[in-house]
Each structure stands twice: as structure tokens, then as C-alpha cells.
Amino acid sequence: MSQLLHPVSRRGLLAGAAATGALIMLHPFSARAQANQAHLRIMETTDIHVNVLPYDYYADKANDTMGLSRTASLIDAVRKEAANSMLIDNGDLLQGNPMGDYIAYEKGLKEGDLHPIMKGMNLLGYECSTLGNHEFNYGLSFLDKVLAGANFPFVCANLIRGTELAANPRDDKLYLKPYIILDRKIKDGSGAEQPIRIGIIGFVPPQIMVWDLKNLEGNVKTRDIVEAAKAWVPQMKEEGADIVIALSHSGIDVKQGDMMENASFFVAGVEGIDAVFTGHQHLVFPGKKDFQALEGVDAQKGTLQGKPAVMGGFWGSHMGLIDLMLERDGSKWKVVSATSEARPIFERVDNKNKPIVPDDKRIIAALEQDHEATLAYVRRPVGKTSAPLYSYFALVADDPSVQIVNQAQSWYLKDILKSTQWKDVPMLSAAAPFKAGGRSGADYYTDVPVGDIAIKNVADLYLYPNTVRAVEITGAQVKEWLEMSAGIFKKIQAGKADQPLIDPEFPSYNFDVIDGVSYRIDLSQPPKYDSKGGVANAGSNRIVDLKFDGKPIDPAAKFIVATNNYRAGGGGNFPDINASKIIYEAPDTNRDVIVRYVISQGTINPTADGNWSFAPLPGASVVFETGVKAKDFIADVKSLRIEPAGEGEAGARYRILL
């Protein structure tokens, strides 16, 4: 028997308005639908990353910009605006905050246990979800236990069980069902219930085979997203799907290639797909900021190649909404019009975050014990620091939050390799700042005061459960590694004031600092590599005065570089850095290594050693934005001539005199 999609009645509409004290407006599609038409609203959450509650465990304080419990309150109001509605999720549920680590590493999941993310989601009436790349961070066995607790299905059309791809994607032995077709009843404009078949298909970035190689190699394989879509969507139509919805845990990129990480634009171009729900990039679509001026992308209307699409932020910050006006053509439904919206759970008022919706008390109650256990876990001291750990200047100067990661990685691997053939090969270490503002907001910085260091502080320093890797490369490859990192900076002209320094399209997690060498960055040169690792200016040399042991580095010399599985496996597309260079795969996460290092030292000194700086550029100055608390640490930055330059769009603005 077909279920009725979440309907709204006039009585329910009036009751909801009375309860909230506000007038709830029906979407125009619901208001004007005729007898042969129906309005379907599809709601998306994406990239929740275990942020079920509005609490930042790294900072150990409430945060009004996040939390599925807040988005859940939005769900009820949003449903009241539409004649028919359904709720889906777009993946990246299981990793991303200390609650996820606590469950995976400390408490564990036994058969039949319910993960906190499922405790919350099971209360909300989800119809379906797909897998995100971070679902695999804790291994397939853990993933299977989590999915077993969901009261809604998961689909993924490009994750294959085993190591063999079939000649035809339809013959792949998939890890999950590629799609589902929901038989539902929908209320038309006259109030009559009509049958409808809704197909939902899901996709994960193929790059999981690089990012989580240790967990996945020999167990699963991935296929190109668009290739899988072109194979499976026709079968969905053959099976009678009236409309097809793509859950694409993949971002938006208009440059086509094989095995694309961000393929949603081209998913929208697949015949038969009616709407695309995207994610992965932690951006907002449609909107006024992200994905502007891209051919085939309408960031105002929210369309990709003319198809409705949405990206609902991250951590529960927004709900993605696609509204479809459906028209019955004989016995089938078709989309005749659509709108798209990303609706936030908070707003900025007087430079502060103000919540728009309250918490869903059911979720708060369901996660009370998990919340308290996570707080106890993250507050546990493991050592002390003699200097503050902060990342306010991590993109412009050698930085203590990166320094301590590099110190810990080198300490760990030197001990492991001391009795191997690599014992006499010089050790370097590469690390990047993860919390450096940017897309994640004005408060997204590491800030640990002098004194006790707890697990929450270590998790704050290193957000991801990466594992340690050692790669062997040459001095020439060290330089190219740094050339790629230097792509985060824009080209700067001599004699010109207040030029923007940081390229917002270049993610901070790809700005590696390599310790063990010293170098300067010549900003008058253009970037040699673009943000995706492509050669942009082959003759450029931004990295100058590159030295090892006080002497110019020997391009032919061999070096061991401590890094993580993401970078060593090819993540970020750094030149010549891939799995072929790995000489040691550690069983330990980078976080665990930092904890062990702190414990072994008792008290650490993370003061940056200033091994890199900008080359002088006469008469030039640059500006960048950082957090408002940066003013407390400006005196610590010895390698720069730096001064305040007023308020920024989302924080404080500073000037560097080159």
C-alpha cells in the first residue's frame, strides 16, 4: 500500500500558524496547483558530520551556526508551506567532530547499537540518504553497523563490492542498492490523492579509494559518477519512475574530466534526472557568494544545466529545498516548473550569529547521554603547553598550530624508522592549517591558551582521522610540493598598496608547510600550479632560498617527509606525490600521534620557528582577513611587518608590508 507523502491540510496550516504566532505562507506551487497538478517539496540535509547538536566540542561551547536539532525545527515549518513534502540526506554523516571519534574509537559500536546520528535522524522521517566520503573513515565494518540502525534506506550507484568493475555498470556487484523507487500518494490541486513513483539514486566521490585506501583497498572499488548515472537512470525510468532525484555527494565544477570529485554539474546533464541535491564542498547553492559566473550555472535561480539543484551548506547550517510543480500527463507525472532555495538556521546581526529556529527537543533528549560522554572524553587532559596554540596567522606566517603537528609527526616517524634502511635519510614533515577561517566562518580558528591540553585541543588542531604516512622524495620534489602550496597566494605587484593576498578558491588544508627546510615565497611570481594541481605557469618559481641544513637544497638528494594518508595517496594533486612514493604506512592516526607526543613531552613548546617567510617586495602591501582575536597574538608574529587594517567582511582585516 502506497504511503502518502507528508501532506499539509488547511487545519494543520492554521494550527501551525497559531502555535508559532506567525503567518505561514504556502509556496506558490501549492497555492495555484490545479486538479492535474501537484506540488512536491524535497528537503535536503547534507554534510552533517555528526553535528547533531548545536555544540562545538572543539571550543567546548554552544554554537548557533550548526546542529541537526536546529535544522529539524526548520523541517516542521518548511513542511507546512507545501502540499506534499519529503526529506532526504546527502551524506557525510559519521565523521567530523569529537562525538564521532568518541563513538568510533572509545565507546565502539556493537551489533544492534544505535549511532547518535541515527538516533537523531530516525526521529525526523527521512525517506533516503546516500554515502559521503567521510562515511569510510572508520572502516567498512563500522559503517555497516551504523547503517543497520537507520530506519530509512541508503543508496549508492558507484560503490562496488570487491575489486572488479563489470563491463556494464548495471552488472556491477554494488555495495548498496544503486537506487530506490518509492511508491507514494501525492495530493493534487483538488485535494485528491494520486499515485506517484519517485526514484532516488546516490553517488559518492570516487576519490574515497585514495582518501581511505587502507580501509577500502581489496574490499571495494569506485566507478565514475556520471558513467554510473547514465547507466542506471534509464533503468529507473524503465521501472516506472515518474521523477528521478539524484543524491550527489559531490560538488559543482564545470570543467569535465574522468572520475570527477565534483561532478554534480554533469549529473544534472544526464537525461532523465529531474533534480540534483549536492554537497561535499561545504558551500551554499543557490546564493549570492558561491559558484558565481560559471557557464551553465545559475546561482540565483539554483539551476545546473537548467535542472534545479541545491547545496545546503554544512553541519546543519542550511536546509536545501527544491520545489517541483508536477503535472499529470496521462498516467505519468512530469516536472513543469521548479524553484530552489538554501534556507539558513541562523543570521548575522551586529556581527554576531543569531539563531532563527530553536532546537528540536526530541533530538536533544535522545542524545543527552552521548553528549555528556563526549564532553567527558574531550575534556580529559593529556599534557601542558608552554606557549599558546592558535591559527589566526596560519596562512601568512609560520604558525604554532602547524608547528606542533610537524613536531609530533617527525618525533613519531624518526623512532619508527631508526632501525630501517631509511634511518640516515633526512626527515622533513609537512602539515597544513585546518582551521583558518575562510569558508567556515570568522570564528573557525584554533585558540588554545597556555596550560593544560585536553583531547578536545588535539582534535581542534587536527580535525580529520587521517593516518600517518612517510614518503621518500627528492629535493627537487620538495620544491614542487612547496610550489603547489604557494598557490594559495595571489600574484602581487611591487609598489601597489593593499592587494588581496589569499585566493579564496584554494583550500587551507592544501597549504602545506614543510618543516626541516627553510624557504621564502616570492609573491611577484604567478602561481606555478592552480588549486587543482594543474600547471598554470610552468616557468614560475615562487619558492626561493630553499635550504636544508643551512645550505641550498640538493635537487637530487633524498628526503623522507612525514605527512598523512590523504596527501601521500595523491589528495590535493600535488606534483609527484602519490602512493608510489610511500615507504611507510602507520597504523596510528595523526591525532593519536599528537596525543602521544604531548604525553611523552609532558609540556610542549609549540612556538613557531619561522622557517618560511615572504620575500621582500618594495612598495607593496597586501591585506587578508582573520579572526577578531588575532589582535591578542600579533606581537608573536616576528617574521612580518603587520598592522590592523579595519574590519573585514567576517572578522578582522590586517595589512602586511612586504
From TrEMBL:
Residue ranges annotated as coiled coil are none
Record key words, sorted:
Hydrolase, Metal-binding, Multifunctional enzyme, Nucleotide-binding, Signal
Q: Which Pfam families match?
A: 5_nucleotid_C, Metallophos
Catalyzed reaction equations: a ribonucleoside 3'-phosphate + H2O = a ribonucleoside + phosphate; a nucleoside 2',3'-cyclic phosphate + H2O = a nucleoside 3'-phosphate + H(+)
* Cofactor(s) needed for function: a divalent metal cation
Q: Could you tell me which residue ranges the 5'-Nucleotidase C-terminal domain spans?
A: 439-575
Report the principal subcellular site: other
Domain Calcineurin-like phosphoesterase, chain residue ranges per copy: 40-282
Q: What domain of life is recorded for the organism?
A: Bacteria
Subcellular location(s) per record: Cell envelope
Keyword Repeat in annotation? no
What InterPro entries does UniProt report for this protein, alphabetically?
5'-Nucleotdase_C, 5'-Nucleotdase_C_sf, 5'-Nucleotdase_CS, 5_nucleotidase/apyrase, Calcineurin-like_PHP, CpdB_N, Metallo-depent_PP-like, TAT_signal
Q: Which residues form the signal peptide?
A: 1-33
- Family membership: Belongs to the 5'-nucleotidase family.
Q: What is this protein called?
A: Bifunctional 2',3'-cyclic-nucleotide 2'-phosphodiesterase/3'-nucleotidase
Q: Which organism is it from?
A: Mesorhizobium salmacidum
